[in-house]
């Protein structure tokens, strides 16, 4: 009986650890992304999950579809789940230089503290 209780306790600890280190962070990211998508407006510049930069031209939120203009006369239909983040040229430039410029990491952290 004591072994069963000890085993059950260990399993509960494993499940609690899995929940707190895997499930909860994913739920937080999902909520944060949904909040971001709900704040998007036509004309916002976005970066897709594939790294494509474009301008949001319209959105069908109930269907989970967004239309993004990636060049003059070129509009693509993508899932709202693929809208990664807002396009900020300065942040993208800093991020691109992380491995090259030793001050890039510090500048990126300063930008994060300002927002």
UniProtKB/TrEMBL annotation:
InterPro entries: Preprotein_translocase_YajC. One of its GO terms (cellular component) is plasma membrane. Its main location: membrane. GO terms for biological process: protein transport. Pfam families: YajC. The keyword Transport applies. It is found in: Cell membrane. It is a single-pass membrane protein. SMART domains: YajC (SM01323). It comes from the Bacteria. Keywords: Cell membrane, Membrane, Protein transport, Translocation, Transmembrane, Transmembrane helix, Transport. The chain crosses the membrane at residues 6-24. Belongs to the YajC family. This is Preprotein translocase subunit YajC.
């Amino acid at each position: 009986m004591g072994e069963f209780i000890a085993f059950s306790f260990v399993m509960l600890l494993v499940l609690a650890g899995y929940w707190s280190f895997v499930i909860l962070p994913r739920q937080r990211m999902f909520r944060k992304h949904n909040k971001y998508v709900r704040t998007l407006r036509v004309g916002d510049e976005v970066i897709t999950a594939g790294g494509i930069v474009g301008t949001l031209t319209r959105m069908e939120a109930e269907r989970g579809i967004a239309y993004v203009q990636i060049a003059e006369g070129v509009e693509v239909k993508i899932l709202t789940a693929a809208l990664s983040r807002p396009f900020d040229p300065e942040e993208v430039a800093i991020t691109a230089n992380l491995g090259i410029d030793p001050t890039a990491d510090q500048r990126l952290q300063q930008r994060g503290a300002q927002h």
